[in-house]
Design brief:
Helices cover about 55% and strands about 10% of the residues. The protein is elongated, with a radius of gyration of 23 Å. It is α/β, with parallel strands linked by helices and about 350 residues long. Strand 3, helix 8 and strand 4 form a beta-alpha-beta unit. The longest helix has 26 residues. It has a 5-stranded parallel sheet with strand order 2-3-4-1-5, sandwiched between helices.
Length: about 350
């Protein structure tokens, strides 16, 4: 394809869909601790899906991880990791990877028609199929100043029903889709009907309405393995001055902290982070060892310890941390918050005791 043809194709794809998810994929990939989550690819349930035994796979967070931000991060990191791994697989075995990152902040743009058009755009970008039909659709609507309908997008998708190579479609954070329309059922039910030979992987929190959509479907719980938690501890320790100094003086402390936190976190990154935040305040190695031995197992006890550390700060920092907690719980209902209302991120992490 010459330069002019490539430019025309790109212009047509830009017109087709306003949604591009590459930047989001890269952002999430940067936040993930290297070499974590790799257990997923060895799981028999995932392998059955990868080999085509199952058409749809749902990867969900743990029920006990009730905090939205933590569970969403864990499942979202897994979605990003799958996209990366599938990208390597399809380069070797010739295939196509399509991905969607649902985001509650992007709900006005992530409409059913725009999500469908994004799938078409990604398929058309990697295939020689469908360009003529997209060009004809563009010509039809350009003169009217209109946009393609949902039905027309469905017709375009049917062009890719019988791709000669494998197609993988990853839909991340399904729970962040618009709740006032049929976006969820579109992605989970209609899209697989339009592309029956593609393999679909969805990630989300484990919520009742979403669980019903996957009734009878293969599912896989996303939780941190002990090795994942130990790697994250190693990464975090290098950022904590006191812990770094204690371990330089006594290297055996690292293994003790890794083993204890991994055992008491029960697959939850949140608990591991809270435990580390508690240990990072200790002034002596003796106090650190005593704290490690008495780390709570239940998340409620860990929250109580965190809240106590918040209360032990000066009044202004403690008040800011509590206001942040309230704002986080009410975030979906707030409509008049802007950047000037938000404290610096590092300050918030500090006053909230991690």
């Amino acid at each position: 394809m010459d330069i002019n043809a490539q430019r025309e194709k790109q212009d047509l794809l830009n017109w087709l869909s306003p949604l591009i998810f590459w930047a989001r994929q890269q952002d999430i990939s940067k936040t993930r601790t290297p070499d974590t989550g790799l257990w997923l690819f060895e799981d028999p349930v995932y392998q059955a899906w990868l080999q085509g035994q199952d058409h749809i796979l749902w990867c969900h967070g743990m029920r006990k991880q009730i905090l939205y931000t933590v569970e969403a991060f864990l499942t979202r990191s897994s979605g990003s990791l799958v996209v990366e791994e599938l990208g390597k697989t399809t380069q070797v075995q010739k295939g196509t990877v399509v991905f969607i990152y649902c985001d509650y902040k992007e709900r006005p743009r992530q409409t059913p028609i725009n999500l469908l058009s994004s799938v078409v755009r990604q398929l058309a970008a990697s295939q020689s199929i469908g360009l003529e039909e997209i060009r004809a659709l563009h010509k039809l609507h350009k003169g009217k100043g209109s946009r393609p309908s949902r039905s027309e997008m469905g017709d375009l998708l049917t062009l890719y029903r019988d791709l000669p190579s494998r197609a993988f479609i990853v839909v991340d954070a399904l729970d962040e889709c618009n709740t006032t329309d049929d976006t969820k059922s579109l992605l989970v039910e209609e899209l697989p009907r339009l592309l029956p030979k593609a393999r679909f992987l969805f990630t989300s929190r484990k919520l009742g309405d979403i669980e019903q959509l996957f009734d009878g479907r293969p599912r896989l719980e996303i939780r941190a393995s002990d090795s994942d938690i130990k790697r994250c501890i190693m990464d975090r320790v290098t950022q904590e001055p006191r812990l770094r100094k204690h371990m330089a003086a006594d290297p055996s402390l690292l293994e003790l902290i890794q083993d204890t936190i991994a055992r008491r976190s029960d697959g939850m990154f949140l608990l591991a982070q809270l435990h580390l935040s508690a240990l990072a305040t200790k002034h002596t190695r003796r106090a650190l060892r005593a704290s490690v031995e008495n780390l709570p197992i239940e998340i409620d006890q860990t929250y109580e310890s965190t809240l106590q550390r918040i209360d032990d700060q000066n009044q202004d920092d403690a008040s800011l941390a509590k206001k942040h907690a309230i704002a986080a719980m009410d975030l979906d209902g707030r409509t008049e918050i802007d950047d000037e209302d938000l404290p610096d991120e590092d300050i918030m992490i500090s006053v909230c005791a991690g």
